[in-house]
Design goal:
By secondary structure, this protein is an alpha/beta fold. It has helices at about 15-30, 55-70, 85-90, 90-95, 110-125, 170-175, 180-195, 220-230, 250-255, 275-280, 285-295, 315-330, 345-350, 355-380, and strands at about 5-10, 35, 45-50, 75-80, 100-105, 130, 150-155, 160, 180, 200-205, 235-240, 265, 300-310, 330-335, 385-395, 400-405, 410-415, 420-430, 435-440. The structure holds S-adenosylmethionine, iron/sulfur cluster and FE3-S4 cluster (F3S).
Length: about 450
C-alpha cells in the first residue's frame, strides 16, 4: 500500500502557522508524508482564520476547489480546523458538502483518528461528517511540531486572549488566556538552541499578558525574557505586544545587550482616544506615544496594526490617527478596514456605519503616508553595517534576503549556502521596498 499524503492550507496569524506545524507533525508521526499539491493528497486540512469576513469567504470558495478534486479522487478527505471551526462547529458542514470532518484548535492530536473514522464510515456508505471540537484538549508539550524552517522556530507562550477588544473575534475562537509554564518554554527554547536554531519567535496574542492567569506573581513576561537571555541562541523575538500591558521591565530588557531582538509589534488600532475607549483597548494615544518614545530611546523598531472605519470613527477621529502615524513614524504598519464580526461587542452595539468607499479612502491615505515614512526611515540606514539572518533567495536570481535584528528586510548578492546563517551586510540603498547592501564578511559569524 502506498504512503498516504497530506496537504495543509493555512490562513491567519503566526499562531495559526505554528498550529499547522503541529498538524503536519502529528500526521508524519502517523505515517503520512507531505504532498506538494492538494491534487496529489489523500487528506487536505484547512487551518482557518475568522478575524475578518474576507478570509471566511475564501475558505468556502477553496472548499469548492476541493469538491472538484474529489470528483477525480473520491477517496480524498477534507478536514477543517482553526478559528472558523471553533466558532461554527457543526454549522460548517452546511457551508460546504465537501467537508468530511471538523476539528478544534486544541484537537490536533486527534486528527489521524478522525481521518480513520471518516474513512471507515465512508467504506460503510455512512455520511462521513465527524466533529471533534474541544473534546480532549492537546497539551502543547506533547505535539510533535514539524517546523517549516531549520533555523527559525515559533514557540507559543500563551494561547487564547482575555482582552475582549470590542471589534475582535479572537477571544471567542481561541478562549481565555492560558499561559504555558516558564519551565516548559525554557526547555523548548533550550532544545531548539541545542538543535542549532538561530532564532526563536515567542507567540501570543498579547505576550505582555503572559502569566496573568497563573497564581505565581513572579511569572510575567519580563522575567520570562530575562530567563531566555541565558540560553545560547542568537536571536529571540516575540509578537504581539500590547500597549495596555507592556511594562517598563520588558522595555528595560529590550535595551540591554542580549539575544532579545530590538523589534516590538504593538497595535495602536486608532489615534482617537474616544475610539480607543470604544474599542476597549485600555490606553490613550498619549500613553501609546510615550511607550513609542521609550522604545525608540533603546533603538527598538516599532511596527503596528491600525483599523480604519471603526463604526464610530468620524473624519476628525481618522485625522487623529493620521497625526499619530506622523508622530510615531512606525517601521511598518498593517492597515485593515473594519470588518463587523458577529458575536463581538461592536457588532451588537454599533452598525457597520462607515461606508466601504470611505473606509477605502482612509486606508489609502494611511498606506501612502506609511510608505513615505518607511521610505524615509530606510534611506537613513544607508552606510550602516547590520547583522542579517539570511532567510532565503530574493526574487531576483543571485540575490538572497534576510532580516535585521530590528526586523527590516535586507536584500544582497550572495550564494544560497548563506541561507540560515548570520552575516554582516553594509547597507548601500534604502527605499520603501526595504534595504539593499553588500556582504561585508563572506564568512559566517556564529
Ligand atoms: N492580539 C493582537 C493585538 O491586540 O495587538 C492582534 C491580533 S489580530 C489577529 C491582528 C489584527 O487584526 C488586529 O491588531 C487588528 O488590527 C485586526 N483586526 C482584528 N479584528 C478586526 C476586525 N473586526 N476588523 C478589521 N481588523 C481587525
Ligand atoms: Fe483581539 Fe484585542 Fe485580544 Fe488582540 S488583544 S487578540 S485585538 S481581543
Ligand atoms: Fe485568525 Fe484565529 Fe489567528 S481568528 S488571526 S487565526 S487567532
Amino acid at each position: 500500500m502506498s504512503t498516504k499524503r497530506f496537504y495543509i492550507y493555512t490562513w491567519g496569524c503566526q499562531m495559526n502557522e505554528h498550529k499547522s506545524e503541529g498538524m503536519a507533525g502529528v500526521l508524519v508521526r502517523a505515517g503520512y508524508l507531505p504532498a506538494d499539491d492538494p491534487a496529489h493528497a489523500d487528506v487536505v486540512l484547512f487551518n482557518t482564520c475568522m478575524v475578518r469576513e474576507k478570509p471566511v469567504h475564501k475558505i468556502i470558495s477553496e472548499a469548492g476547489v476541493i469538491a472538484q478534486l474529489k470528483e477525480k479522487n473520491p477517496n480524498l478527505l477534507l478536514g477543517v480546523g482553526g478559528c472558523v471551526a471553533q466558532a461554527l462547529k457543526e454549522k460548517l458542514f452546511r457551508q460546504s458538502p465537501a467537508i468530511d470532518f471538523v476539528f478544534g484548535s486544541s484537537n490536533i492530536s486527534q486528527i489521524p483518528e478522525l481521518i480513520e473514522q471518516a474513512r471507515a464510515r465512508r467504506a460503510l456508505g455512512k455520511p462521513t461528517w465527524i466533529l471533534a471540537v474541544d473534546k480532549i484538549p492537546d497539551k502543547i508539550e506533547d505535539l510533535p511540531f514539524l517546523r517549516a524552517s531549520r533555523f527559525q522556530a515559533k514557540v507559543t507562550i500563551t494561547e487564547g486572549c482575555s482582552n475582549f477588544c470590542s471589534f475582535c473575534i479572537v477571544p471567542y475562537t481561541t478562549g481565555l488566556l492560558r499561559s504555558r509554564l516558564p519551565g516548559d518554554i525554557i526547555s523548548e527554547v533550550s532544545e531548539l538552541a541545542a538543535q542549532g536554531y538561530k532564532e526563536v519567535q515567542l507567540l501570543g496574542q498579547n505576550v505582555d499578558s503572559y502569566g496573568k492567569d497563573l497564581k505565581d506573581p513572579t511569572i510575567n513576561f519580563a522575567n520570562l525574557l530575562r530567563a531566555l537571555t541565558e540560553i545560547p541562541i542568537p536571536r529571540i523575538r516575540f509578537t504581539s505586544s500590547h500597549p495596555q500591558d507592556i511594562t517598563d521591565d520588558v522595555i528595560a530588557v529590550l535595551g540591554e545587550e542580549n539575544n532579545i531582538c530590538e523589534h516590538v509589534h504593538m497595535a495602536v488600532q486608532s489615534g482617537s482616544n474616544r475610539v480607543l475607549a470604544e474599542m476597549r483597548r485600555g490606553y490613550t494615544k498619549e500613553r501609546f506615544l510615550e511607550l513609542v518614545s521609550k522604545l525608540r530611546e533603546r533603538g527598538v523598531n516599532v511596527t503596528t496594526d491600525i483599523i480604519v472605519g471603526f463604526p464610530t470613527e468620524t473624519k476628525e477621529d481618522f485625522q487623529e490617527t493620521v497625526d499619530l502615524v506622523k508622530q510615531a513614524r512606525f517601521g511598518g504598519a498593517f492597515i485593515f478596514k473594519y470588518s463587523p464580526r458577529p458575536g463581538t461587542i461592536a457588532y451588537y452595539k454599533y452598525r457597520d456605519a462607515v461606508p466601504d468607499e470611505e473606509k477605502q479612502r482612509r486606508l489609502e491615505i494611511l498606506l501612502t503616508l506609511q510608505k513615505q515614512i518607511t521610505d524615509e526611515e530606510n534611506r537613513k540606514r544607508v552606510g550602516q553595517t547590520v547583522e542579517v539572518l539570511v532567510e532565503g533567495p530574493a526574487r531576483t536570481p543571485g540575490l538572497v534576503m534576510g532580516k535585521t535584528r530590528d526586523h527590516r528586510t535586507v536584500v544582497f548578492e550572495g550564494a544560497s549556502d548563506l541561507i540560515g546563517e548570520l552575516v554582516h551586510v553594509k547597507i548601500t540603498h534604502g527605499s520603501v521596498a526595504g534595504l539593499a547592501g553588500q556582504l561585508v564578511r563572506p564568512g559566517v559569524l556564529v
